[in-house]
Every structure is written in structure tokens, then in C-alpha cells.
Amino acid sequence: MKIFYTISLTLTLFLNATMGFAQTNPKANISGIILDENKKPADYVTVVLFKAADSSIVKTAFTDPNGTFGFNVASKGSYFYKASNMGYKTLKSKIIVLTEDNQKVDFGTAQLVATAQNLKEVSVAVTKPLIERKMDKIVMNVSNSAIMTGSTALEVLQKAPGVTVDQNDKISMMGKQGVLIQLDGKQTYMSSADVANLLRNMQSSEIESIELITNPSSKYDASGNSGIINIKTKKNKNGGTNGSLTGTAGYGKNFRGNAGLNLNHRTQKLNLFGNYNYGRNERENRIDIDRISNGTPDTYFMQVGSSLRKQQNNNFKAGLDYFIDKKNTIGVLVNGYFNHGTEASVNNTLIGPSFQKTDSILISNTLQTNKYNNLSYNLNYKSVLDTAGSEISADVDYSRYNGNDGSKYDNDYLFANGERMRPIMYTRNNTPSIIDIKAFKVDYNVSLTKTIKLEAGVKSSWVKTNNDLQAEEFVNNNWQNDVRRSNQFIYDENVNAAYTNLNKQLKNTSVQIGLRMEQTNSKGNLITTNTVVERSYWDFFPTLFVQQTLSKNNQLGFSYSRRIDRPSYDALNPFVYYLDQYTYNKGNPFLNPQYTNNFELSYTLLQKYMLSVGYSRVNDVIMEVLLPDTAQKALYQTNANLAKNISYNANLNIPVQVTKWWQMNNNLNVFYLSFQAPDLSGKELKTGKTSFQFKTQQTFTIMSGFTAELNGSYESPLDYGTFAIRPRYSIDAGLSKTLFNKKASLKLALSDVFNTYKTNLSSIYSGLTYEVRQKNESQVGRISFTYRFGKNEIKPARRRSTGTESEQGRMKN
């Protein structure tokens, strides 16, 4: 920490020096006030300052809640501005002249003129497409989509370009796992299983858009080898008092539904906001496994299983922003969830010398219960330092997570004729867990010159997890502690980081160079066996971004980044969880972090067609594997470090305006993946295969306010780690109608219209032979109604990004 303190102090002194450098040049000040059509201050109006001599752009600014704006300019001359805002005509000012340094000139007060007569045409023109390609990311606009209605966040992600969610809720992007999930720019600090559970309990009605960032800059946490998926939740953008009510009902084989309330109240000095969502979800899952346990002789297992998951979730968020003055804002944010559910499973396993002959049968009944609670607190501050956009922001975060997983197992062993071989074996587990997260971060950016911008910041996080596996078995009519499996695992982790980005804008070229330093200190302690694993290491993560404008309609881009993925908390937890005697899961406390080098080259045509090609190499890649337990003739799932993973990918995005009433977006992702491990449980693994994913979104405007959507996706055969995955495909459809003068909307949707989406996989690991067939309840019809009330005309408060973005993504929900 002394070393980190020295770095922080040095960075602080450097920032102070650069602030002083940025403010020493003599500058004149230009200001003005913009009013709306009611002669009230208009905030968040875009104001662009031009040189009168050649109409070149000098600077851009936004009006504050008082309607005022200001510019500092370094040269004498003549200037004018243009002010624009949606629903108003563009306003052009008179010309003013600066004749001396440090001169103050006031443009005075100007009033916007509404374009009410063109409101209908404007509303049609600004409707966001489902998929948008931006310079550094792909954006999927969820809120306007009929197909997304009533879906969970996990189901929405499955429809995103280049994203795959398998039947076990593992998320991949561009063919690779290791995606960092953020909510409103905040890392979740949860395990992959917990993130999946959180997204499964979040409704599409809570989501505004999803950002897919394949090569993040140094400002972001260095975790996530395949990039970042940022889920931006809805924030009421209006002034006064307003809100919305949403209700959804759906049915496949089982019922699911959700309801939510969103409220916002904004005055000149204060913005209060909050929302609450309740969801109930029932989902059926079927899994069949055929496998061969090698031996003398071989033993054949045919497992047929089904489960029914029932989940109820309560999510909420509340906060306020206080505008101290036009440059300083302080905010408080509290959010959390209270979720609980059950999952009942039945597995029948036929065992014999071949798949055609059965010697014995194992019938396993399992009842799993879960209860997850989380409360997170954030205190944030932001100060705008000058009209050039320089600002400093700070966040302090605390989050506490409480979970409790319980399981009851009944294992019944029978002969082939149905007679019982032995008494029924009863076991049960109870696993309370507590996760504490503390974090702080400071971000600073300053314009050193007209063309050079500096970003810098520091961040520290402290995470402590405590998992207590209490395993029992039923012996002599009493529950007794199972000393073979009961254990307690405590994990402590501290990550300290500092970063800097330097942006240089040339005439047709922009360059950004960045460096992030992270120091990691971790300790895993398996209490019962006194097994301690400690690590302390430094890492450096450089980034480079170059954008070249060849012409108005042709742009090239190049990016490079080095990234890290630390093992998730549940992957490090060495506990053993049994599905039955022959199928179980266990953690690996000896996992090492994996490191990735990403390269990407992109080309944009006509500002909408985009092709990107990329290459990445991952060392010590963390991979979920299925391996044999020859002593128990069992199959177990765990995580292991493979030697390396090399991938090549190409992504092509083509939006097409077929007619005035028909829009489509097509996305093709082609990639080659290879994995190597010289010694994986005594066997060599070496794979490599080219695969592709194709997704198309079709939007049809039937009439004003009435649209239809049709989406399709296809994933070709894929080799991933030790798995060979067969093709997967599905089609979704939806209708959307606005009502009551656009204050309400009614949406109908049917996901997986032909009930085709399923996961079939087999082993490509030479030490094991198996076939897995898994089918979730994916064909679901939904109806959703949303009603918006209150004032709907004023601009949003500031966006927030807290300091716990990366840690919560490694937790459970």
C-alpha cells in the first residue's frame, strides 16, 4: 500500500500541474443564456461556437439548469454560435468580436422556437434502430423493441450481435467467454453463476440499451478477455414529476410475469429518482447425458433428467442528485435485490455394460432452495472545471451480499428389475455466504490544448467472501455432519489501480495511448484443511486506439489492449456439489489469472456499414471442463488453466432500409478458435475450428405507432475447450402499438417461435466419451403494457459510473 500511496500522490501532483498548465494561457470569456418557448431556462441545449471568418467549429458546450453557457477562447477574432435541441428550430446568434485578452463578452439572452407543426415527422425520424454501430462499440436499443418485451436480461443478451448464452447461462462474445458484465458502467463483482442469476431476475422493462465493447480503453477495469457488456438501465429523463408503470405476463409450459414502477422528480436544484420491479419466473429444463466410463470392462451411463426452477425477485433503486451550482453536483445511490426460489430435479440413470443392457438404476431426486439479498450504496461527486469539458469525479462504494443455497438429495439404487439394492441415501447441504465489497475511485480529465486531452484516475477495491458448506447425511435416523464434504472457504482480495489516457486529435486522425497499472493481493483459505493460497502481483495493461478518416464516407480504426481475467469466486471455492453419485461439481483454489492480448482493425463505410477483424491470444486460459473421475466412475465439472487460446474473428454489420416501412440489420460473426493444453488430467488437448454466428433483425412499420419485428439467429457447430457444440438456431416475433397519445404501449412477443433452440454437445477430450442434450423452456409468449405519466419534455440528469463495476461481476445473485 505504501507503493500505491506513492503512485497516487505522484499522480495527484501531476494532475495539479496539468491543471495549472491548462489554465495559464490567457483566455477571453464568452457567455450567454438560452430560454425555451415559455421563456424558462432551457438546460442541456447543445451550443456550438464558430469562427465567423471561415465558419469552423471552435468548441461545443451544453447549457446548465439556469440556461447559461460559456466558452473560454484563446484567440482574438469574430465568433457566433448555433444552439440546437430536439423539438426546436436551430438558433443562430449575432456575431461578436473579441479585441483583447481576458475580455468578457455576453451574447445576451436568446429564445428557442418550437417546431410543433413537424412533431409527427420528427418523432418518426429520431426513432432509434434496434442495432447501432458506433466508433468504439455496438449498441442494442432494447426499450423500443417489441420482441424484447417481457424477457429477462439474460434472454435479451442472447439476441445481441456476437453474443451467445448457452443452456447453462454461460455468456460468450465473439465466440469467447470471459465477458465482463457491467450495470450502468458499474462492475458487478459477482461470480459468473451469480451474474447469470441477477440477469435472469432482471426484466427487459428495466433496460434502456446494451453496449458491446470488444476492446475497452485503459479507463475501464482490465478484467474481461473478450470485452465488456454494459447494460444501461432506464433513467427517467424528464423534469417535474413523472414515471411509468409496466406489467407483463408470459406463458410457455409455465407462467412467468413481472411488474414495475419507475418514478422521477426533478427541480432546478434536485433530482430524485427510484424504481421497483417484481418478477416471477418458472422455467423447465431437460438434460440427457450418455457417457462411457473407461475401464475393464467399460461402464455405460444413460442419464435422463428434468428440473423445474421457480424464482421470485424484488429489485429496487433509489437516489438523488443535488446540483450545488452549475459546476458541482453530489449524488447518493442505493440499490439492491431480494430474490428467492427453488429448483426441483429428477434424474434417472441406467447403468450397464452397454447402452442396450442395464444392470442397475440410480434415481436421484433433488430439491434446491436459494435466497440472495444484496444492498449497495454509492456516494458520488462531480465538478466541471471549465467550459472545455475538463472535470473531476469521485465515487465511494459499499456493497454487502448475503446468500444461502440449500440442497436435499435422495439417491435410490435399484437392480434392473426394480428391486432396491440398498437403503435410500439421504444427504443435504446448506451453504450460507457473505460477500463484502468496498471501493473508491477518482477520475479526472482535462483539455491540455485544443487537440490534446488527458484522462487519469485511481481506484482501489477490497473484497471479502466467506462461504460455509454445511454437509450432512442421514444415518441411523439422524442427520449427522459429513466431515468429508463440510468446509469453510474465506477469500480476501485487494486490487489497486491507476490509469492514464492521452488523446491527440489531428486533422483526419485521432490517437489515444493509455496505460493501466493494477496491483493484486489475494488470499484463499480452506479453513477445515488449512489450505492457504496467497498471491501478490503487479500488472501493466497498455492500450492503443487510432482512428483515420480517409474521406467523409470512409473511416479506418485500429485498437490494441492487454487484459486480465481473475478467477471468479465460485471457481476458486473448492467445495464439492453432487447431482448424484456419478455427477458432481468442484472448485479449484489453485487457478491462476489469464492474460489476453487483443488486436482489432475496423473499417466503416457511409457511417453505417462496418467490418472489423481481430486477433487475440490468451495465456493460461481459464476454461470450464468436464473430466472423468476414474476411481468413482464419475463425471465432474471444474475449471482449469489451459496453456493457451488463440482466436481470429471477423464481424460484419449491415443495416438495410429495404423500403420506407421495412428496416433490417444483419450481423455476421466468423471466428476461428483453438485451445491447447499439454496435460489436462493426464491427456493432451489440442483443438481448432472455424465457426460463425448470423443474426438478423427485421422491423416493419405497419402504420403510425404500430410496428412488427422478426428476428432470427443461427450458430454453426463450435469447438470450445473440451466441448464440441452442435448448431443452434431460433426465430422470434413481436408486435408493438402505441396508445393514448403515445403515453402507453402494448407489446406482444413470441420467443423461439418453432421451439428449436437447444444445446447438444459431445466431448473432444480423448480421455472421456459423452453426449449431452439440453433443452430449456425457450418458447414463451408474452404480453406487456406500459403507461407513462407526468411531464415528458426535459433532459436527463447526469449519468453515473460507480467504483464497484468489476468486482460484483464475479459474485452470485
Automatic annotation (TrEMBL):
Signal peptide span: 1-22
Domain Outer membrane protein beta-barrel: 385-787
InterPro entries according to UniProt: Beta-barrel_TonB_sf, CarboxyPept-like_regulatory, OMP_b-brl_3
Main subcellular location of this protein, as a coarse class: membrane
Coiled-coil portions: none
Protein name per Swiss-Prot or TrEMBL: Outer membrane beta-barrel family protein
Keywords: Cell outer membrane, Membrane, Signal
Subcellular locations according to the entry: Cell outer membrane
UniProt entry tagged with the keyword Disulfide bond: no
